[in-house]
Design brief:
elongated, about 0% strand, 2 helices, mainly alpha
Length: about 60
């Protein structure tokens, strides 16, 4: 039982440590999606182009890590 509590406490601590980073990532993804949707609302092909450019930039930035 003590091992379970210890493991649970470590898991919760790890989750609490990574939560701010996850929130920032989620905000970025939602922001990019909102921009692409706004462009799509104005002119449908523009939404796909903007989303594609954002994905290419994200892949490029992530590959640099």
């Amino acid at each position: 039982m003590a091992s379970l509590r210890s493991n649970l406490a470590r898991g919760l601590a790890a989750t609490a440590a990574t939560l701010p980073s996850l929130i920032v990532d989620l905000a970025g993804i939602l922001g990019a999606g909102s921009i692409a949707y706004g462009c799509w609302s104005i002119y449908e092909p523009a939404g796909f182009i903007v989303a594609g450019v954002m994905l290419i930039v994200a892949a490029w930035l992530l590959s640099r890590r």
